Amino acid sequence: MGDQKAQVHSFESFGTVDGPGVRLVIFFQGCHLSCRYCHNRDLWESDSGTEYTVTQLFTEVKKYKPYFQTSGGGVTASGGDPILQAKAISALFRKCRAAGIHTALDTSGGVPITPDVEELLSVTDLVLLDIKQIDDEKHRDLTGISNRCTLTFAKYLSTHKIPAWIRYVVVPKITDSEQDCRKLSTLIESMENVEKLELLAFHKMGEFKWEQLGEQYSLHETPTPSISDMERVRSYFSQLTIPVCTAER
User: Which CATH class is domain 5-248?
Assistant: First the structure.
């Protein structure tokens, strides 16, 4: 089959928010969602970016192994949505696993679970699962697609006991209603693999990317949630026994 190839947008060294410890975060090109609040609009197209072989990517990863070992960190595949390049990332994660390097996958899980996706998850130590909206109609309005695949993906992770952190972006008047949050809390409570819930405050730091592409950012007038807004939303998840953290994205 030869050396798998992937389209990569960029690297973030010494990342500390996309999984445990110090991490090398690789932003892979391509996304199947069209999130209205996306701060990485330039990652949507799958045919742009820079092509890397898995060997080249692993050479980059190995540079940071001493930092991984001392901090309990590793490599995180992000995007875009890296699950669209499942074959290449599976090959990379297999190399990482063999070298004792922790692997994390940052994804919305909004695709069918194919054999390629199953293979990727089999070599993933932690999934950072972005659940955009629990209500299907609202999810369609926010992202352009149904959330059915995401919810099936979440169930798969639970059934196979793949460790997961749930990430939920708090957007005023879009994702912060008590009804939606309670419903999401019920889903998380039913899962056996979730280690924590991260509530991420909506921001507009990526708005300029939309402007550079000549596109309209529809949430221009939407405010960033206040500390009290975040605490209010956090209270809707009070029934959970796992940690519930609030943070900016």
Answer: alpha beta
In this structure, are residues 86 and 119 in contact, taking their beta carbons and an 8 Å threshold?
yes
As a residue count, the chain comes to 249
Task: Measure Cα distances from 200 to 44, 81, 95, 108, 136 in Å.
Answer: 21, 18, 31, 14, 20
pLDDT in tens, 141-151: 999 999 999 99
What is the spatial distance between Cα 111 and Cα 72, in angstroms, rounded to a whole number?
A: 30
Q: Which single residue is written with the structure tokens 């069918």?
A: 112
Residue 247: pLDDT band with limits 50, 70, 90: confident
Whole-model pTM over 0.85: yes
Is residue 138 within 8 A of residue 180, CB to CB? The reply is: yes
- Residues 23 and 75 sit within 8 Å (Cβ to Cβ): yes
Q: List the chain domain ranges.
A: 5-248
